[in-house]
Amino acid sequence: MLHTQRQRASSLKLDQNGIWISNTHVFSGVDYVSKHVRDKKGRVPDEVRIWYHEKKLSNWVGPIEKLRNEDGSPRWIQANALYDIAGLPVTNIPDDVQIYPFDLKLADADVVPTVGMPAFIIGFPGGLSSTGLSTVQAGLKAGIHMTGFPIWKEGQKAEGQVLQ
């Protein structure tokens, strides 16, 4: 079976045995705004590869999670159709991975943004990834099956105003 990587996305894991959170369009293949299938050939994803840190430093493993049940219904959960956010219950977590879950209790922490405070931006600006390649095709031509992880940029808050 030939697997073709068609898109990359950032996501987060809520807990050791829980749900991966990402955008609904990542799981469905349907543009959130236009409601049209994003692929020009009308294809929608039926599986997603989730990359995990192995317990051994600098190693990664990427098992595949099915996106649909046997009857074709989606496995992901979308609590509110107003938002492009969905959760996928994971079932294929290898034993040799280290999970770094996102602590939702942080939402209750009072943080006052101040000058010099660190800020992180994670994603694929302009379609670029950690390898600098902007497309899957460019990666394949370069002999790279996976064109990279999101770019992680750190900076500091430089303005004194607090935004409300």
List the helices and strands and how they pair.
Blueprint: E1 12-13, E2 19-22, H1 24-28, E3 47-49, E4 52-54, E5 60-61, E6 64-66, E7 86-89, E8 97-98, E9 118-123, H2 136-141, E10 151-156
Antiparallel strand pairs: 1-2, 2-7, 3-6, 4-5, 4-8, 9-10
Estimated helix fraction: under 10%
Question: Termini separation (Å)?
Answer: 51 Å
Strand order of the largest sheet: 1-2-7
Would you report the number of β strands?
10
Total of domains: 2
Helix- and strand-based class?
mainly beta
Largest sheet: 3 strands, antiparallel
Task: Give the rounded overall mean pLDDT.
Answer: 76
Identify the overall geometry: globular
Q: What is the count of helical runs?
A: 2
**Helix-strand string:** EEHEEEEEEEHE
Rg calculated over all Cα atoms? 18 Å
Name the poorly predicted regions.
1-5
Beta-strand residue percentage: 15-25%
Written account of the structure:
The protein contains 2 helices and 10 strands, in the order E-E-H-E-E-E-E-E-E-E-H-E. With 164 residues, the chain is mostly beta strands. The strands form 4 sheets. It has a 3-stranded antiparallel β-sheet with strand order 1-2-7. A 3-stranded antiparallel β-sheet has the order 5-4-8, with no helix packed on it. A two-stranded antiparallel sheet has the order 3-6. Helices cover 7% and strands 21% of the residues. The protein has helices spanning 24-28, 136-141, and strands at residues 12-13, 19-22, 47-49, 52-54, 60-61, 64-66, 86-89, 97-98, 118-123, 151-156.
